[in-house]
Amino acid sequence: AQSVTQLGSHVSVSEGALVLLRCNYSSSVPPYLFWYVQYPNQGLQLLLKYTSAATLVKGINGFEAEFKKSETSFHLTKPSAHMSDAAEYFCAVSGNNFNKFYFGSGTKLNVKP
Amino acid sequence: DTGVSQNPRHKITKRGQNVTFRCDPISEHNRLYWYRQTLGQGPEFLTYFQNEAQLEKSRLLSDRFSAERPKGSFSTLEIQRTEQGDSAMYLCASSPGQGAVDEQFFGPGTRLTVL
Q1: How confident is the model at residue A12 (pLDDT cuts 50, 70, 90)?
Q2: Choosing a second label site near B25 at 20 to 30 A (CA), which of A100, B2, B31, B86?
Q3: What are phi and psi of B87, to 5 degrees?
Q4: 3-state helix, strand, coil in chain A (%, to 5)
Q5: pLDDT, average across residues B72-76
Q6: Does the pLDDT value for residue A98 go beyond 80?
Q7: How many helices (H) and strands (E) does chain A have?
């Protein structure tokens, strides 16, 4: 079975500061991992995905995530936060059949001017 | 716009009424998913279609819920005898159903409020 834990339901950073959003997963099979972003009143948009190739994955809008099997983690980072990054971020894990994704409870990112 | 579309975007209903939501996936996507998202939580899987076949249903999908995907195109999700606990955002997603990694593309959701 798969599951995801996102530590910190709310994260606040200053504009220009490092963004770090944490995601730990549990999976009985080699996982596929995803980060999605959700802006208010909108659907989820894919930021990046881990597909068992490179462990450091680059996504859109300057975000990247590193897959660490030993730590069962897939944390999302961005070197310099922009005001437009304020949104809710969801980590998701899928098994190898992609029948469903298991989502974490989300982290709301607030960016202060 | 060729993304996933959902209608209606908002639905307010009284307890006990039936409601139906529609999802139009990205053209030629074989897989279609329904999720439910409540306040402060991530999306929870409800059900999944491969073309017109409903292949998996979550235990969250009680007998009052039914989903269809006739002809493998659009899908509908019906909730009968709605309860206040059904109030949530209902998300639809689709994926190509091919290739090594089958990422899901989400629609904007239908927000249901049961009074």
Answers
A1: very high
A2: B86
A3: -60, 120
A4: 5, 50, 45
A5: 93
A6: no
A7: 0, 12
Distance CA A22, CA A91 (A): 9
Say if the Cβ atoms of B43 and A101 lie within 8 Å. yes
pLDDT digits 0-9 by tens, A24-73: 999 877 788 999 999 987 889 999 999 877 889 999 999 999 999 999 99
Please check whether residue B93 is in contact with residue B29, taking contact to mean a CB–CB distance below 8 angstroms.
no
Half-sphere exposure of A68 (CA within 13 A, CB side): 11
Whether residue A42 and residue B108 make contact (CB cut-off 8 A), yes or no, is yes
Single-letter code of the amino acid located at A60: I
What's the whole-number mean pLDDT along residues A66-95? 94
Q: How far apart are CA A82 and CA A73, in angstroms?
A: 24
User: Both ends of chain B: CA-CA distance in Å?
Assistant: 33
Taking the C-alpha atoms of residue B6 and residue A104, their distance in angstroms, rounded to an integer, is: 23
Residues on chain B bordering chain A, Cβ-to-Cβ distance under 8 angstroms: 4, 31, 33, 35, 40-45, 48, 55-56, 58, 91, 93, 95, 100-109
| Token pair for A87 | 């949104």
| Alpha-carbon gap: B111 to the closest alpha carbon of chain A (Å) | 9
Which residue type occupies A40?
P
CB B17 within 8 A of CB B83: no
**3-class DSSP state for residue B55?**
strand
Tell me the mean pLDDT in the region A71-97.
92
Q: Minimal Cα distance from A91: which residue of B?
A: B42
